[in-house]
Design a protein that fits this description.
Layout lengths: L38 E2 L6 E2 L3 E3 L4 H10 L4 E4 L14 E4 L6 E5 L4 E5 L4 H10 L2 E2 L11 H6 L16 E7 L5 E5 L4 H7 L8 E8 L1 E2 L2 E10 H14 L2 E7 L4 E10 L11 H15 L3 H11 L5 E7 H5 L7 E9 L3 H12 L9 E6 L14 E9 L5 H13 L3 E2 L9 H7 L3 H11 L8 H8 L2
Parallel strand pairs: 3-5, 4-5
Antiparallel strand pairs: 1-2, 6-7, 7-11, 8-12, 9-10, 9-11, 13-15, 13-16, 14-15, 14-18, 17-19, 17-20, 18-19
Helix pairs in contact: 6-7, 9-10
Bound molecules: flavin-adenine dinucleotide.
The site of flavin-adenine dinucleotide (FAD) has 34 residues, from strand 4, helix 3 and strand 11.
């Protein structure tokens, strides 16, 4: 917003919070079990004490580890998933040594990178070659393999999720086999491994479809929620990237669009996102128990004329930083159900006076990966959040019912309570995936308790 500090006029300035807490997923791993550090995820909700925390040096060491390491063997990316995909009392392994740009074929629009490369470094390395990814999620600290493994996505009605930008990958299985696959070589394995929850093996290298680097213009404005929801389909059709945030208990939403422009990048100023969040929390703290007062105050204090504009390289605008820790649930619903689901989700959130985080609404194009939450359907995604030090269960229990009602598939990296039977009904290729998983990992060495429950219901 143009008024950078103090999104709600009169509520005062909010200093930007401290940076991310140190994350053990980024700590230097060790191969000696007694010294293995505890691991925890970004929000602090998930943690474990593995026997070994290992960073294999190359594919040979990775294959050896997968065959002989203490089970369960779970690969960690940047530890930015909220769900319990990573925790293991056996081996946590990190691909710190599988990072960086390896090969570029600019003519074919292909770039191969180590699977443990952080998205920010993928973008930077591609930029240096005059290239860019088509789209990015909200943040870019995830590893490429970790992001693809959960179906991580950005927004854009005609743009698919990150894993759908893959062209080929190399997988090392629990039996120590090295398998390459692509859209033309072992296409079924490729379709399964694009979104694998780390259950088929460890991906060591990925080849991405890339494009010449490009500049985006970002525009942000506020709208009353009723008008915004009416306008959303047209905005999604008109802009390369459209998303919106509904601010609970205010009646107001923020529209964010990005469009490709032929302009020079201009350095981006301070983002107002954190200021908005702090002001919403302050409003909740003051008037949370009096929803009518809260709405009245919001109507008085929010200046609907606030605007933000920025022009920069795509990767510098699409991803941002999220210093405030939170827990999150997100579902992907068929596109035609998107707005109805969003309305219901807002109503469910507003039954909880403690809620203050905006709901995020995005558009994603369908793809063919077997466990892609966007499998064969263009989708809308709805995300709900709670501060990391506050209760989050209502996101799963109450808003989760709304997601269920609208045919939502859960984001694999976020909180949900879907059973194996429910998931099997949501994914046409579910049984094929499970059969392939059992073939590649017959002893279930890659399954931690969370994945056993998800895949086998046990
Ligand atoms: C602040 C924040 C913002 C977010 N924004 C978005 C967003 O905009 N859009 C979105 O869709 N999601 C978003 N997420 C969710 C996040 O992108 C996913 O949870 C993602 O999977 C995290 O990547 P990671 O590298 O941290 O992987 P981790 O969380 O460490 O691991 C995720 C999965 O990947 C597997 N894995 C990791 N490396 C490999 C490998 N080499 N081979 C095989 N499997 C592997 C792991 O075993 C695990 O199953 C956000 C999360 C946070 C905390």
């Amino acid at each position: 917003m143009t008024r950078r500090r103090g999104f709600l006029a009169g509520l005062g300035a909010a200093g930007v919070a401290a940076g991310l807490r140190p994350d053990l997923a980024g700590a230097t791993p060790t191969a000696t079990p007694p010294a293995a550090p505890r691991w925890r995820n970004w929000s602090g909700l998930e943690h474990c004490q593995p026997r070994a925390y290992v960073a294999p040096a190359d594919e040979g060491a990775l294959a050896e580890l997968l065959q002989r390491g203490a089970a369960p063997l779970r690969c960690v990316g940047a530890g930015h998933s909220f769900s319990a995909l990573v925790p293991s009392e056996g081996t946590v392994l990190a691909l710190d040594h599988f990072a960086g740009l390896r090969r570029v074929d600019a003519g074919a629009g292909l770039a191969s990178v180590g699977a443990g490369t952080r998205l920010s470094l993928v973008s930077q390395a591609l930029h240096d070659q005059g290239l860019a990814l088509q789209n990015l999620p909200d943040i870019d600290v995830q590893t490429l393999a970790g992001a693809c493994a959960t179906g991580t996505h950005g927004t854009g009605a005609s743009l698919p999720a990150l894993h759908a930008q893959l062209d080929a990958l190399t997988l090392v299985t629990a039996r120590g086999e090295r398998l390459t696959c692509s859209r033309s070589e072992r296409p079924e394995l490729f379709a399964a491994a694009q979104v694998s929850l780390g259950a088929l093996g460890v991906i060591s290298e990925m080849t991405l479809r890339v494009r010449p680097r490009f500049v985006l213009k970002r525009r942000v404005w506020l709208r009353p929620i009723a008008a915004l929801l009416d306008e959303a389909p047209a905005l999604a059709a008109k802009h390369r990237h459209f998303e919106c945030y509904l601010l609970p208990f205010t009646g107001v939403g923020a529209v964010i669009v990005h469009d490709e422009v032929n302009e020079a990048p201009a350095p981006r100023g301070h983002s107002a996102d954190e200021d908005v969040l702090k002001d919403l929390k302050r409003l909740r703290d003051w008037a949370g128990r009096f929803p009518k007062l809260r709405r009245w105050l919001a109507a008085k204090l929010i200046d609907l004329d606030q605007r933000e504009e920025a022009t920069d390289w795509s990767w510098k605008l699409l991803s941002t930083v999220r210093p405030t820790l939170f827990n999150e649930s997100e579902a992907h619903v068929p596109r035609e159900a998107g707005l109805a689901c969003l309305r219901d989700a807002l109503a469910a959130i507003e039954r909880h006076d403690e809620a203050f985080f905006p709901l995020e609404f995005r558009y994603i194009r369908g793809d063919d990966a077997w466990l892609s939450p966007f499998h064969r359907r263009d989708s809308c995604s709805i995300a709900v959040h709670a501060a990391a030090d506050e209760p989050w269960q209502y996101l799963v229990k109450d808003v989760g019912q709304v997601f269920r009602k609208h045919g939502g598939r859960p984001h694999w990296g976020k909180l949900h309570d879907r059973s194996a039977a429910e998931l099997a009904a949501l994914y046409p290729r579910w049984r094929d995936f499970q059969a392939l998983r059992r073939e590649l990992d017959p002893q279930g060495r890659l399954l931690n308790p969370y994945l056993r429950r998800l895949f086998e219901g046990s």
